Amino acid sequence: MMQHTESYRLIISGGGTGGHIFPAIAIAHEFRRRYPESEILFVGALGKMEMTRVPEAGYKIIGLWISGLQRSLTISNLLFPVKLLVSYFKAAQVVSRFRPHIVVGTGGFASGPIMLAAVNKAIPTLIQEQNSFAGLTNRKLASRVSKVCVAYEGMEKYFPASRIAVTGNPVRSNITEFSGDRIQAIKSFGLDPSKKTVLVVGGSLGARTLNECMVEALSKFESAGVQVIWQSGKRYYEEMSLKLKESGVGVVALVEFISSMDEAYAAADLVVSRAGAIAISELCVVGKPVILVPSPNVADDHQTKNALALVNRSAAVFISDREASKKLADVMLSLVNDENKKNEISSNIRLLGRPHATEDIVSEIEKLIKPVAA
């Protein structure tokens, strides 16, 4: 896609978790690629991970004094109305000074004040909702923004139908472009290309349930001749390394964090994953058979809703976090050797993939800013 000489000012807000930050940065990269002369400013929440991740990606960020409501009565909850008011006035100042052509929100606490400030100044706004169950901030903004880009069909229950564009979620370019072969990918993890391989990922921080399931099943994998690429997460790596060493099992490549997910997907005959929106979007693009074990520790249980959106189309196998210790290992070993079932899941999940989601979202942004700038 060609580059343009126009210069636009774009504010992007999203954070709190990687699921909000990654899409925000992907959108910024694509917008900057099309409009290299444009100015892009991020707005995040003070103390949250976006305050370091965004500058690392090459963008300026301003932090607001904002946080979410806790489930129990805390001082933070008592301060919430004050934080909201202070953040709104700071956001209004940022909008007045920066004078953006558009403000884009990808969810998270900081999105609310900045999107509201933009709406109140009649500036075009676009929100990108990653999950099949819309987040609180995006639900509150739904009736006032110019456009809503979603990853799932049937989102009319949260947003006005006339403003919805089904674009999918941004997926890392190295995953959409990867064309490496399975044998080389497996060798890069020090494993045997002649054996069936399962990839187990519980997110960048890891997942206690998945890690404990792996420890319990190590001898089963060895007996079945199935090997595992296991991302434990930083939090659990030392503990899991010790348990793996004690087991003496040699069919496992244990890693703290997989930076080359493209190779990990290429190596895998089967994937076991949490059901975060971005992880699911990547799995749909690579088209691998998958067992989803949703995290129970997320707002509105949205990972279960994400997983069921695939299960209802025969595009994934579902195991609840509660049942994982009893069922996961046996289901993994059964499925990895069931070629017909794996092919069925692969075919169905691939139909849901949207490899050009980032480009489509930026095209929606263009539609909103062109009339304004003209």
Give structural notes:
By secondary structure, this protein is α/β, with parallel strands linked by helices. The protein folds into 2 domains: 9-171 and 355-373, 3-Layer(aba) Sandwich (Rossmann fold); 174-350, 3-Layer(aba) Sandwich (Rossmann fold). The protein has 15 helices and 13 strands. A 7-stranded parallel beta sheet has the order 3-2-1-4-5-6-7, sandwiched between helices. Strand 4, helix 4 and strand 5 form a beta-alpha-beta unit. The longest helix has 24 residues, at 75-98. The protein starts with 8 loop residues before the first strand and ends with a helix. The mean pLDDT is 89.
Task: Describe the secondary structure blueprint for this structure.
Blueprint: E1 9-13, H1 18-34, E2 39-45, H2 50-56, E3 60-64, H3 75-98, E4 102-105, H4 111-120, E5 125-129, H5 136-141, E6 147-150, E7 164-166, H6 173-177, H7 182-188, E8 197-201, H8 208-224, E9 227-231, H9 237-247, E10 252-255, H10 261-267, E11 270-273, H11 277-286, E12 290-292, H12 302-311, E13 317-318, H13 324-336, H14 339-350, H15 357-373
Parallel strand pairs: 1-2, 1-4, 2-3, 4-5, 5-6, 6-7, 8-9, 8-11, 9-10, 11-12, 12-13
Helix pairs in contact: 1-15, 3-4, 7-10, 8-9, 8-13
